[in-house]
Write a structure and sequence with these properties.
The protein is mostly beta strands and 149 residues long. It has one domain: Lipocalin (Beta Barrel). It is built from two helices and ten strands. The longest helix has 9 residues. It is globular and about 40 Å long.
Amino acid sequence: MKKIFFLSILMVLLVSCGSLDQKSQTGLKGDWTVTKVSYPGSEYIKVNSFDIADSKCFEGSSWSFVSNNNKGNMSIAKGGCPTFSSPIIWTVTKEGNFTLKITEGEKGKRVTQGYYLKMRNQTESSFQLVDNVNVGGNTVEVVYSFQKI
């Protein structure tokens, strides 16, 4: 599930503002919660999301996006799951690609690993992030449904 990419790729995305979707990024500004994690077309699977916790632990997680500097914060506080909170760095490209770096207090330029998801169905009050995961040689989608708080 973990998508590893080089810092230079993220920097290229940040520097070349022409490739970023400013409207989508501005639309994410504010506080959000993950209302549901689903696996369309699949039976229940166990996925460790973002190398933090089981994907279902992200239901009820809080996310804050600041669009003018592409920073924010995410946190998990669901019973039976590890408590976790971290600053994040994120971007959305015109192709709908969402890049995410969980910095855990490190400077963004020192964090060389991140995650590459697809953004779908964005409205003023909701959107989805989709991660493609390899399960037994098959690609399965993990869909994180966000609702604005």
